[in-house]
Write a structure and sequence with these properties.
With 91 residues, this protein is mainly α. The protein is built from two helices and two strands.
Length: 91
């Protein structure tokens, strides 16, 4: 069984904030690693976001759209490169 994380290991969003309660694996089971915005049916929903930097830019834009100040949006996304999905990227 896969480990269950408190935050999505792709975008960093708290899993409890995910309205769908987590993404889905290819077999239809819930993912304990990724949120429903990032991961569905065993695949990432935005294949064009393939680096932690692109994910940070995307999340900062979403947070600013939710009226978060730019500095706060940056603070909330600066840990993205340390998430499991991105650990092997760029090594």
């Amino acid at each position: 069984m896969e480990k269950t994380y408190k935050n999505c290991q792709s975008c960093g969003m708290p899993m409890k904030k995910d309205p769908s309660g987590g993404g889905t694996n290819a077999d239809g089971t819930k993912s304990g690693m990724y949120c429903g915005y990032c991961y569905q049916n065993g695949q990432f929903t935005s294949p064009e976001i393939d680096t932690p930097e692109k994910m940070q830019e995307f999340c900062i834009g979403k947070l600013k759209g939710m009226k978060f100040p730019g500095f706060v949006a940056w603070m909330l996304t600066r840990g993205i490169p340390k998430l499991e999905r991105w650990k092997k990227v760029g090594l």
